[in-house]
Design brief:
single chain, about 650 residues, Gyrase A, domain 2, Rossmann fold, four-stranded antiparallel beta sheet, binds arginine, Arg-tRNA-synth_N, ligase, Arg-tRNA-ligase, arginine--tRNA ligase
């Protein structure tokens, strides 16, 4: 972009075309701070004699801005013989007094801290943000097969996430998978990858034979149409109750020494098994019925996902894995001696194929039951291979609760043992802490829609508490709904994925078991204060409001004289805004939504504490324009980051 070229030529010593060769990982046109890093590496190289390409990668971020914008740990440069703390002092002294981009570095023990100079940073960063708009921060080069040659195309990634089970509750684990998976898909898309979002439904197994029986007995076509997810779930709860009662009866009679063969042969359990066997064998009527349930459920899921700004490219699922594909995989496993027969069933004994602790951990896994039906693991192995054939992906993420860690390890190990090591290397389990299991049979469980509605209603109440502001909102119900969703999502994303989430995610867990705790936590997550979703929405709406009240056109803002932004507060806002591309790239490494959120909360706090010092409305015209340019850049960055998280930023 122009702003960066102009600045580079002003600095004089930087030739951007030379820099591209020396620093292949620098992207100054989209990440202005890279220009500073190039300049620091150039300058320090002259002073120290250390090679530029060694300096550039060790220029690090600081924990907080009072420690500088960049920091170099001198020992990381691996200079033999010399004392790092002495070098830090020496280099700081030799740093040119009149450096155009940074102040004289500050030595502190073995570190050198760098502070950027206000005027050039403000000019460059605010202009780049305006020029890039919605693209500011995106690392679109990351997904290129060959960063030097975009015509070679983009890398392909599959993100499998959400994956609920039809006729069963959409529990907190599914909600977390949905939120994290949606975020990761956005992230990779913004990083230039070709992303395919897959929802792998739990939609196959004996329990769906049981569900069909329940429908025969109690099904209601109209109810099914009206709310398929709710209706199927109710049937599922009902039939399970009956089946449990039946099993207890059989047990009791057994104990009394009675012959239960007859009872067992006609039991719901046995009927379900037979019905499911019919489905497996391709009985058209049974399958048509099942497809009908599945299609209606998917339609409903789609509506709910849309509220979270999520869509899927493919609704796959356990039912979609063909018997043919599994027979083939089964054949390969026998051939390679991975699977074995165990009185009729087929299993893998990992201890025979993997040494030591790892083998023990993996244990044994059943692939096929005695009656020939394939299990969860077998389906996943075939599905993985199928996906690779279909998409030839470079990477695949499974966003699944940590409860299934063993399952995924077994899946990856089998893939490896089958000789598909190259495919296995492309796969990663994105694990996250799970909340307490919730019984599917109690009927008190809530669905995603219910959680979102409850929290939206509550949000509406919270909004009404401020009558003045409430009166200004045009569609209060719609806004309440969006804010409610934001509070659930931010609450869920604030904690680290990996931390056991029993504490962090109490608010989401509780609605499903204890209503009182739910309400209590709801109060916290829907608050406009503290690190919440509504707080971010408020920060965004406030920036929009300043823009409305300033009543300036885009052209007027673009022509602002940015040299008027001389205050410390203005520079601090700029310093935060300049970090967004770095934060984005760091997020590609951590794959944690909290990396974005931590940044956002810091950034919005700095903006909010600047309002008293940098008034827009009421300042004289040129200053007003310049400050508006600052806040408008802040609005753009906040908007970009919120959208990346999957939030819909509100304007009022
Ligand atoms: N439907 C599963 C469940 O709810 C999650 C599926 C995870 N993905 C997979 N490829 N196994 O437990």
């Amino acid at each position: 972009t122009g702003a960066i070229d102009t600045l580079a030529s002003q600095v004089g010593s930087i030739s951007l075309s030379d820099a591209a060769a020396t620093y292949p990982n620098a992207h100054p046109h989209t990440n202005p701070l890279d220009l500073w890093r190039i300049h620091i590496a150039d300058t320090l190289s002259k002073i120290s004699g250390v090679e530029k390409s060694i300096i550039f990668p060790v220029i690090a971020w600081t924990q907080s801005l009072d420690k500088g914008d960049f920091i170099i740990a001198v020992p990381a440069l691996r200079i033999k013989g010399a004392k790092p703390d002495a070098l830090a002092v020496e280099w700081a002294e030799k740093w040119p007094e009149d450096d155009p981009l940074v102040k004289k570095p500050e030595p502190s023990k073995t570190f050198l801290s760098f502070f950027i100079k206000g005027a050039p940073a403000t000019q460059a960063v605010l202009k780049v943000i305006r020029e890039q708009g919605a693209d500011y921060g995106k690392a679109a080069f990351d997904g290129l097969r060959d960063p030097q040659d975009p015509s070679k195309g983009r890398k392909k990634i599959i993100v499998e996430f959400s994956s609920p089970n039809v006729a069963k509750p959409f529990h907190a684990g599914h909600l977390r998978s949905t939120i994290i998976g949606g975020f990761l898909s956005n992230l990779y898309e913004a990083a230039g990858w070709d992303v395919t979002r897959i929802n792998y439904l739990g939609d196959w197994g004996k329990q769906y034979g049981l569900l069909a029986l329940a429908y025969e007995k109690y099904g209601d076509d109209a109810e099914l149409k009206r709310d398929p997810i709710d209706h199927l779930f109710k049937l599922y709860v009902q039939i399970n109750k009956e089946m449990t009662a039946e099993k207890e009866k059989i047990e009791a009679e057994k104990k009394e020494g009675k012959d239960v063969a007859e009872l067992e042969a006609t039991s719901l359990d046995e009927q379900a098994r037979r019905y499911f066997k019919m489905m497996v064998d391709g009985d058209e009527a049974a399958l048509a019925q099942w497809r009908h349930f599945r299609d209606l459920s998917i339609d409903k899921y789609k509506q709910t996902y849309a509220r979270l700004n999520i869509r899927f490219d493919e609704y796959s699922g356990e039912s979609q894995v063909t018997e043919e594909a599994m027979a083939k995989t089964g054949g390969e496993m026998t051939e390679r001696g991975i699977s074995e027969n165990d009185s009729g069933s087929v299993l893998v004994d990992f201890t025979k194929h993997v040494n030591g602790k790892e083998g023990k951990q993996l244990g044994k896994a059943v692939l096929r039951k005695r009656d020939g039906t394939a299990l969860y693991l077998t389906r996943d192995v075939s599905e993985l291979k199928g996906r690779h054939e279909k998409y030839n992906f470079d990477r695949m993420l499974y966003v699944v609760a940590s409860q299934q860690e063993l399952h995924l390890k077994q899946l990856f190990k089998i893939t490896e043992l089958l000789g598909y090591e190259d495919i296995r290397k492309k796969c990663q389990h994105i694990s996250f802490g799970m909340v307490l299991g919730m019984s599917t049979r109690k009927g008190t469980v809530k669905f995603l829609n219910d959680i979102l509605r409850d929290v939206g209603d509550h949000m509406h109440e919270v909004m009404k508490r401020n009558e003045d502001k409430y009166a200004q909102v045009e569609e209060p119900e719609k806004v309440a709904d969006i804010l409610g969703i934001s509070s659930v999502m931010v609450q869920d994303m604030t904690g680290k994925r990996q931390v056991p989430s029993i504490h962090l995610h109490a608010a989401i867990l509780m609605p499903c078991s204890r209503i009182n705790n739910y309400n209590f936590n709801m109060e916290a997550m829907t608050s406009f204060e503290g690190d919440t979703g509504p707080y971010l929405q408020y920060a965004h709406a406030r920036l929009c409001s300043i823009r409305r009240r300033a009543d300036l056109t885009d052209a007027e803002i673009a022509s602002a004289d940015l040299s008027l932004l001389t205050e410390e507060h203005a520079l601090n806002v700029v310093r935060y805004l300049s970090q967004w591309p770095d934060v984005f790239q760091n997020t590609l490494k951590t794959l944690e939504p909290t990396t974005v959120l931590t940044y956002l909360f810091r950034m919005t706090h700095v903006i909010s504490s600047s309002y008293d010092h940098l008034q827009v409305v009421g300042s004289e015209p040129e200053l007003k324009k310049a400050r508006m340019a600052l806040y408008d850049a802040a609005r753009i960055v906040l908007h970009n980051a919120m959208s990346l998280l999957g939030l819909s930023p509100v304007e009022r």
